Amino acid sequence: MSRKNTLLLSGLVAVFMSAIFAVNSIFYASAAAKKQPSTSVTESSVTAEARTTQTTQPQINLSSLDSKKICWGQGKNFDELNRPRDAVTSQQKYGNLGGFFIGLPEDANANEKKIYLTFDEGYENGYTSKILDTLKQKKVKAVFFITGDYAKREGDLVQRMIDEGQVVGNHTWRHYSMPEKSLDTCREELSLLHDYVKENFGYEMNVMRPPKGEFSEQTLALASQMGYRTCLWSFAYKDWDANAPGDTTQSLNKLNERLHCGAVYLLHAVSPTNAAILGDFIDYARSQGYEFVTP
């Protein structure tokens, strides 16, 4: 074969190989293009869905709210439904700030014949176990508001509350009157106890009760921004004095007589009377058609 023919043949081979390479490149590029959009569409869909479902909570400017201290008590003036009028008006006034004084019919969690049973646990007086026994026997859930000192000293009882499905609430770390402290201190009071309970018991609280029932518009809104509902009450009586336990019959009558729809009962677990009458009160309330629920 002449040198000229050899060069021509080599050129034809080179052109042929180039054509094959180009065809392969187009094939793989086309295959990749077909594969890529499915991933891209999925990511776009997820992102769009996240944007659609994501909600943002409006942050209230706390400095624009009143810092005046309000000392809560349900009062002795009742409406035709046996509800304390102050609890009803306060719920209407402060409910949008996270305050919970009484369940009203428009509250989806507080329809007719609902009762919220709550206990304050500033310190232990030996009666909480009996109260827990009764709640377990009657299949009732309640809220126990604890302080930092109680959480540290009574870990076994706190763990039992959690294990038995009771609600543990934040009564602040040091039991300060919140309106008397700065907002930074109030934030610390809630977060210290919240973090301690979460770290030591694996439990996250979402309801709080201000010490002494003292609050302000600012402290309600602050707690709400921290994910808490501030639970006050629509029934309470003098049961916190361990040295004056009171007559069981008279005390039970007080609890029974003040039954009302959406009632938030505040009882103190230091009272031997409360421990003794709790089962009878639950039975009577149920006989009147009431159901025990939690916030």
Write the layout of secondary structure elements.
Layout: H1 3-53, E1 70-71, H2 85-94, E2 99-100, E3 114-121, H3 128-138, E4 143-146, H4 148-153, H5 155-163, E5 167-170, H6 183-201, E6 207-208, E7 214-215, H7 217-225, E8 229-231, H8 248-257, E9 263-268, H9 272-287, E10 291-293
Parallel strand pairs: 2-8, 3-4, 3-9, 3-10, 4-5, 6-8
Antiparallel strand pairs: 1-7
* Low-confidence blocks of residues: 2-10, 12-57
Q: What profile does the largest beta sheet have?
A: 5 strands, parallel
Order of helices and strands: HEHEEHEHHEHEEHEHEHE
What is the assigned CATH homologous superfamily of the largest domain?
Glycoside hydrolase/deacetylase
Shape: globular
| Number of domain units | 2
Gap from first CA to last CA: 99 Å
Strand content: 5-15%
The CATH class of the largest domain turns out to be: Alpha Beta
Overall residue-averaged pLDDT value: 84
CATH topology heading of the largest domain: TIM Barrel
Radius of gyration, in angstroms, nearest whole number: 32 Å
Structural class: alpha/beta
Summed up, the helix count is 9
User: Architecture of the largest domain, according to CATH?
Assistant: Alpha-Beta Barrel
The total beta strand count reads 10
Helix % is: 40-55%
Structure summary:
This protein is α/β, with parallel strands linked by helices and 295 residues long.
